[in-house]
């Protein structure tokens, strides 16, 4: 039973990564009708929303695209910064979606930012407490580890509406500004949906692992 469980929590993220990379590879070869590179897409949407203070920079790495709220910067991987594909446009618009969320103080984004210190602490120390609690048979220590882990799980769950909302904003922006045509909407949505799978997979695995530990704690507490 445990072998099946661990196979599932390993396969879910691998499947999500496979889908993301496969979809991105496919649509990074499909040029957008506007022929705008990702950097231009990001700048167009930012300026249209009055976010002239938000910068757009190139960053190293594969699919390392992100928005940095501290420096107010959209960072795009080289392939998307210089690329004029449907995938590059979709990802650039998605990251700008986070910048718009930040400017409008989107509630879930603010909540996620507030959870970062607690979630980081939970991710770093929860497993230490969990392992010691299980090995030593200390239910109270295991429970403390579960509490820390729960904070990290909440962070994963709050990330979902943040990411889906950013993708929704991205679609609205690239359509309204004529960056893609109507017949390109399906391809763009596929790129955004595939990217969202990684967050869904991470959240699903986190919830499953938390539930497993709660069951272990319940059994230990019952035997004490």
Q: Topology, pairings included?
A:
Elements: H1 2-27, H2 38-48, E1 55-59, E2 66-68, E3 73-77, H3 78-82, H4 86-103, H5 107-136, H6 139-176, H7 185-223
Parallel strand pairs: 1-3
Antiparallel strand pairs: 2-3
Helix pairs in contact: 1-7, 2-4, 4-6, 4-7, 5-6, 6-7
Please provide a written account of the structure.
This protein has helices at residues 2-27, 38-48, 78-82, 86-103, 107-136, 139-176, 185-223, and strands at 55-59, 66-68, 73-77. The chain has a three-stranded mixed sheet with strand order 1-3-2. The mean pLDDT is 92. The chain is elongated and about 65 Å long. It is built from seven helices and three strands; from the N terminus they run H-H-E-E-E-H-H-H-H-H. Helix 2 (38-48) runs parallel beside helix 4 (86-103). The protein has one domain (11-223). The protein starts with a helix and ends with a helix. Strand 2 and strand 3 form a beta hairpin. It is mainly α.
Give the low-pLDDT segments: none
Task: Count every helix, treating DSSP H or I runs of 4 or more residues as helices.
Answer: 7
What is the makeup of the main sheet? 3 strands, mixed
Instruction: Write down the Rg.
Output: 20 Å
State the share of residues found in helices, binned by percent. over 70%
Keywords: Hydrolase, Membrane, Protease, Transmembrane, Transmembrane helix
Transmembrane segments: 125-158, 191-217
Protein name: Zn-dependent protease
GO molecular function: peptidase activity
